[in-house]
Model the fold of this input.
Amino acid sequence: MDKSRVAAILDEIGTLLELKGENPFRANAYHNAARAIEQLEGNLEELVAQKRLGEIKGIGESMQEKITTLMTTGRLPYYEELRASLPHGLVEMLRIPGLGPKKVKALYDELGIDSLEKLRTACQSGRVAELRGFGAKTQQKILEGLQFLDQTGKRFLLSEAQEIAHRILEHLRNLPGVLRSEVCGSLRRRKETIGDLDVLVSSQDAGPIMDAFVRMPEVAQIVAHGTTKSSVVLENGMNCDLRVVSDEQFPFALHYFTGSKEHNIAMRARAQSYGLKLNEYELAGPKRSIPCKDEADIFKALDLDYIPPELRENTGEIEAAAAHQLPDLIEVGDLRGTFHVHTDWSDGAASLEEMALAAKKLGLKYLGIADHSPSLTVANGLSPERVRRQHAEIDALNQRLKGIRLLKGTECDILPDGQLDYDDKVLASFDYVVASVHSHFNQSQEEMTRRIVRALMHPKVLMLGHATGRLLLRREGYKVDLDQILRVAAEQGKIIEINANPYRLDLDWIHCKHAKSLGVMLVINPDAHAPSELKFLPFGIDVARRGWLTKKDVLNTLPLSQVLRRLGVR
Ligand code: DGT
Ligand code: CA
Ligand code: CA
Ligand code: ZN
Done:
C-alpha cells in the first residue's frame, strides 16, 4: 500500500465520519492526517517499520495505529465497518458540486434520501427546497449538478483510475501463472477521463486468476465470474473487466482492447487491404495466421511504424505510421523545469524553499514561482510590496541553494476587460508573467476572447494559464474562441500552458495538436499548491503526447541557460 492510497483512505474516513455527524474534530483529524501523509517527503513504509510515525506533525497515537495496520496488512477493519455502516449512495451524492457531507447528512436524516435517484425525485417534487438550510436556489443547483453527472456519465479522473489500476496490476502480477499483464482501454491511451478499466492477462490457466481477481479487496461487487472474462465493480464505483488469454493471443488482445474503437476499425480495414483479417485473437490470411510476439510485430506486418497508445484515436496516426512520419513524442524525462507553482506567499501550502527542494528532488533544474496577484483576494494574492519582498527572498534562496534555480514569475489575473492585475512597473520586476482568468466566467464568448487576446498582447506576458478554466467532471470551461487565441499566440510568439493538474488538463490534447500545427509552443505546468503536486507533471506529458508534441514543442524541455536567455534574465 502506498502513501497516496493511505492518504485517500484516511481522507475518506474523515468524510464518512462527517456523513455520520460525528464530532467534527475527529473528522478533521483524519483529513489533516491525510494531508500530512500525502505531503510527507520521507518514506512512509520506513517510518512505519521504525515506529517513527509520531514524528509527523498532527498524527496522534490512535492514528498511528491505524496507519500501521493499513501499511502492514493492506486493510483497516475500522474503515471497512464504517463504510458498510452507511448507504453507498451517500458517498455518490458527494460528487454533486456544492453538496458537502453536512448537506448530504441532512438530506438523509430528514428525507431518507440515500441515492442519486431519490435525490432527483425529491428535488423535482420540491421537498428539498423546504428543508432548513436549503431553499429553492440550492434545490435548483442540485438538479443542475445531477444533470451534469448524467452528462459526464460515471467517468473518473485519469489520476484516480491510474491509482486503482496500479493496485490491481500489482495483485495480478504476483499471482502464479500470470505471464503478461496490462491495463488496456482509455487508461493505456491516457485519456483525461476513464469510463472503465480493461485489464488483460496472459496465462495457461485462467481459472485461478479469475478467482483471485474477484476476491481482491478493491472489489465491491461481482458482476460476472467466467473463465475468459470477469467483471466487477470496484470500491470507488468503477467497473473493471479482466480478460485472460493465451500468451500467443496477448499482443492481439492488447492491441484490440487498447482501442480506440475508431483506431481498431481503421487498422482492420488496413489489414483487409492486405488480404488479412485482424481481431482480438489473431492476424491471419486465408491459409495461416501471422505470429506476432508483441504489438510492434502487428504494426510491422502491416508496414506501419509502432504507434504509441496515446496516438491511437484515428486522427491520422495510421497514415503517419505508414509514411514513417510519426512524431518522436515527448517523455517525462525531457522536462528540465516548470513555470507555474504556488507557495505559502499566496494559496500554496509550502514555503519557497520547500517547493524548491521538492523540485530539485524530482530532477528539475529550474522552478518558476507564480503566486497569485492582488485581485484574487481569496487566494491571498500578492500586493506590489509583497512582490518586492518575495523577490528578495528568491534572490537569497538562489544564492544559497545549489542545483535548482528559482524564477520570479506571477500568475497574474486577467481582469474582466483584459487588463493585467499589476501595473507595468511591477510587471517589469518579474522574470515572466503567466496570465490567467479567475473571475467573470459568464462573459460572452466574444468578450472572453477579446479579454484574453488583449492580455496576451501585453509584451510582458509570456504564457496563458489554464486556457478554458474547465474542471473535469465538475464544471465546463468558460466560452472562448480557442482557435483565435491560438492564432494570436502564434503571431505574437506567446506560449500556451498545458495545466497538468488532473482536474484541469487544460489546454486539452485536441487543441494541443491544433496549436502545434499553427506553430504555437506549449509549456507543461503542474499548478502545484504543495510539494507533492509537482508530481502532476506526468499528466501534462500525457496530454502533450496525445497532442502529438515532441520535445521541441514544449518550452520547459529547454535547459536553464536557454530559458534564461529567452526570458532575458541574467
Ligand atoms: P472508456 O472505458 O469509455 O474510457 O473508453 P475505452 O476506450 O476504454 O472503451 P471500452 O472500455 O468500451 O473498450 C475498450 C476497448 O475495446 C476500446 O478502446 C476498443 C475495443 N472495443 C470495444 N468495443 C469495440 C467495438 O465495437 N469495435 C472495435 N473495433 N473495438 C471495440
Ligand atoms: Ca475502458
Ligand atoms: Ca470496457
Ligand atoms: Zn490559476
